[in-house]
């Protein structure tokens, strides 16, 4: 069955498009993930949604379809989920640092994303340099958590169908709804998601989605699209527990002039970043204050779950 009726509503341009309800969004995404759509239909959907933008109800319906199709992973005690899909472009990628600091506190951490990006330095590459290669199956994940080590898993292994939607970018040259959905993947009802955005308008739509979906999450403007606070200045950290905004657990954005800059690695490549993170973990280099603040907020937020 064609999705032309859906595309007719979605593809009327930024001002003329009409949103789908949750049930329609679920139906559309289910067909897409199950391989029932043509390449032309997938391309039409990707471009239409890129122009229109997703509503909270559409995201909810899409996520209903996505969550039920992923690889089942081991149960864990209030795991923290870090989506890593951007990597380093100008600044060092400290997502592995955040993951390691949380794991040191006994938190099961799942970082997921892309293994490679020809234009960016991925979290997977940095973890590999630190002796923590990507894992591809549930038993390996369980063993690494037992060793109090963070896990990195490629989206292709955790959710192959969603990974195929992300790969449409290689053809169209544009990100699509799949990228937003990947950054919202939960790991069970009591997981704590770190949800990052790059543009202010996404803070609004993602906040609405987190509230309506009863999510446990920390929402922030990430560093170059990564789920870690900017090492130079802490962004606003907005906490949600069961979909409710918790101001007492949130953290306001750092304001005013910077008194000093953190010590950063000499390059943003995987080797330089890995060695610098190891030096910070060993106590030989100070951890940037904004990253420490994010860790403390996450630990307090997790204690409320």
Short description:
The chain is an alpha/beta fold and 305 residues long. It is built from 15 helices and 7 strands.
Overall description:
The chain contains 15 helices and 7 strands. With 305 residues, it is α/β, with parallel strands linked by helices. It has 2 domains: 4-67, Transferase, Pyrimidine Nucleoside Phosphorylase, Chain C (Transferase, Pyrimidine Nucleoside Phosphorylase, Chain A, domain 3, Up-down Bundle); 80-303, Nucleoside phosphorylase/phosphoribosyltransferase catalytic domain (Pyrimidine Nucleoside Phosphorylase, Chain A, domain 2). The chain has a 7-stranded mixed beta sheet, with helices on both faces. The mean pLDDT is 94.
Largest sheet entry: 7 strands, mixed
- Strand residue content: 5-15%
In which order are the strands of the major sheet placed?
A: 3-2-1-4-5-6-7
Helix content: 40-55%
CATH homologous superfamily annotation of the largest domain: Nucleoside phosphorylase/phosphoribosyltransferase catalytic domain
Radius of gyration: 19 Å
Counting helices, strands and paired strands, the structural category is alpha/beta
Which residues form runs of ≥5 with pLDDT under 50?
none
- The counted number of beta strands is 7
Number of domains: 2
Give the CATH architecture of the largest domain. Answer: 3-Layer(aba) Sandwich
Which fold name fills CATH's third level, the topology of the largest domain? Pyrimidine Nucleoside Phosphorylase, Chain A, domain 2
Shape: globular
Order of helices and strands: HHHHHEHEHHEHHHHEHEEEHH
Integer average pLDDT:
94
What is the rounded distance between the termini? 42 Å
* SS field, number of helical segments: 15
Q: What's the CATH first level of the largest domain? A: Alpha Beta
């Amino acid at each position: 069955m064609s999705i032309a009726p859906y595309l007719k509503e979605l593809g009327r341009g930024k001002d003329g498009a009409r949103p789908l309800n949750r049930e329609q969004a679920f139906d559309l995404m289910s067909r897409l993930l199950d391989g029932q759509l043509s390449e032309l239909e997938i391309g039409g959907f990707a471009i239409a949604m890129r122009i229109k933008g997703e509503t909270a109800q559409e995201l909810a319906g899409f996520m209903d379809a996505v969550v039920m199709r992923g690889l089942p992973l081991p149960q864990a005690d209030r795991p923290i989920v870090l989506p890593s899909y951007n990597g380093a472009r100008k600044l060092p990628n400290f997502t592995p640092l955040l993951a390691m600091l949380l794991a040191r506190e006994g938190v099961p951490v799942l970082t997921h994303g892309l293994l490679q990006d020809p234009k960016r330095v991925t979290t997977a590459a940095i973890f590999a340099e630190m002796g923590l290669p990507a894992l591809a199956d549930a038993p390996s994940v369980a063993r690494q958590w037992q060793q109090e080590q963070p896990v990195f898993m490629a989206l292709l292994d955790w959710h192959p169908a969603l990974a195929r939607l992300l790969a449409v970018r290689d053809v169209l040259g544009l990100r699509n709804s799949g990228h937003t959905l990947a950054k919202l993947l939960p790991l069970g009802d009591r997981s704590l998601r770190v949800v990052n955005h790059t543009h202010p308008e996404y803070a609004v739509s993602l906040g609405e989605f987190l509230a309506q979906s009863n999510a446990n999450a920390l929402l922030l403007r990430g560093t170059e699209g990564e789920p870690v606070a900017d090492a130079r200045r802490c962004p606003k950290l907005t906490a949600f527990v069961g979909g409710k905004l918790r101001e007492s657990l949130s953290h306001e954005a750092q304001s005013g002039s910077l008194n000093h800059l953190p010590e950063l690695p000499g390059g943003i490549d995987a080797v330089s970043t890995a060695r610098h993170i190891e030096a910070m973990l060993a106590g030989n280099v100070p951890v940037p204050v904004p990253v420490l603040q994010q860790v403390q907020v996450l630990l307090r937020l997790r204690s409320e779950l």
